[in-house]
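Q&A log
Question type: sequence-to-structure
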Amino acid sequence: MAKVMVVDDDPYIRELVVKLLKNEMFEVVEAQNGQVALYRLAESKVDLVILDLMMPLMDGYEFCTMARKYYSDLPILMLTAKSEINDKVKGFTVGADDYLAKPFEGIELIMRVKALVRRFNIHASQKVRIGTLTLDKTSYQVAWGNQHQDIPMKEFELLFMLGSQPGKSFSRDQLIEEIWGYDFDGNERTLDVHINRLRERFPNELFQFQIITIRGLGYRLEVLG
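Response status: OK
Response body:
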């Protein structure tokens, strides 16, 4: 059973979300702001956080920034009344994995929660399947049908990161820091070159996935069909 933390200063919203989750047999932990949420994360392992944006003491942006320092793989669904594109970009940039604007339909919230938990479980594994391609992190090989191939390490790590969470948008900074490290002294062109090499190496019509450019943000991998 997955455990979900609901972080919102509005008790009525928390009550609604908790009820929806419990109806789907999720275990639920509650917090009324980002500070309390960080404290409870240290006490109890959770599989996903549903996070309000505007809260007193510590808002959703600050919580994401702090949480990513210690829980880099924790899925975060940002739940907010704001729907402007700049707010979404900022949310993704600080570490949110998905974004749902209020008011929302209960069924959509549950579908997004289940999708994020599923992506996290795939990400935690050593193998990931993307379209017709399988990536094995134990051998750093890619395989399809009866064929297999070694590709440059950075290309493999980049494709594994994108493919572990299909449908998730990654910022350029996230990808560069994860693949090349915080002390990387190159530029964003390096990332673009590796993305283009992956696109050329694995054409979408043969491998059934594509890497999409998200203008102003970064990249997202989508499985076709």
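Response note: The chain has nine helices and twelve strands.
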